[in-house]
Queue: 2 jobs
Job 1
Amino acid sequence: MTENDDFHKSEQSATQRNDSFQIATNLFLSFKYAGEGVGYAFRTQRNFRIHLIIGAIALSLSLYFKLSAVACSIISLTIALVLVLELLNTALEAVVDLTVGREFHQLAKIAKDCAAGAVLIAAIAALIIASALLLPYILDTLI
């Protein structure tokens, strides 16, 4: 088989891909697929919704107390980090479930637990950072 034949075969198989393995043919589709991923996480992942709500509260408080642009940026970045890790955790769980199926496997448990642990550590760090930046303003308001 020649190199040209290999190219044509791979080109034919690329046109026969099913829905689970589509390639975005333009920038709009790339954003559409990314939005579908975020939408899926929002609809199905309770922790994603919790992180999103807490993040919105932290950002709202930042704007209400007129924190500096740097402080707002730091809070925004920590919120984004938690949400990104939550999305990666969801993706990893889906891949592990696809690979292992309904059977228990110790390595699958380790992978899922470590991914969830990464989200937990990021969420704790985000909480500490937001508290350090917002707590003085909150306490001044209450006292």
Job 2
Amino acid sequence: MDGHQGLMALVESAWQEMDGSDAGRRHLCLDAISDVLETGRLTQDRVERTVERLVAVALSGESHMVQEAALNAVCTASTYHELPYRVVEPLAAGVDGFEPLLVAYVLAVLGCTHDQAALPVVERFLGHPDPEVRREASDAVTELRWHRGPA
């Protein structure tokens, strides 16, 4: 088994272990997936499929701990891989259902897509009552506008 296959085996094992596990164990499984994403050694297709699953977990309404771990893993993926907006778009659609800490994660991810479709979603949070959300929205807007390039 080569390194890539070994990493994918770790990811699949973590997904399997999540089924039927308690929130604490699910959190650890998501941390393991995040660690694999941090290696930067997965193919783009594998990253996108993994992120799609993480987005589904984040939107599942599970415990705060599990949602935060899933969003943290998506943030990790967005740091090491270029994520297309279509992969994280469900987060943009569901962002209003998150508490401020989790909104900040979503805004960071949306900024990292460099896709102008994320800009209207992010801009809505520039006046949010929570200072961390406003700060993250501002950073995301800057990132998105910077990558827009010349008009």
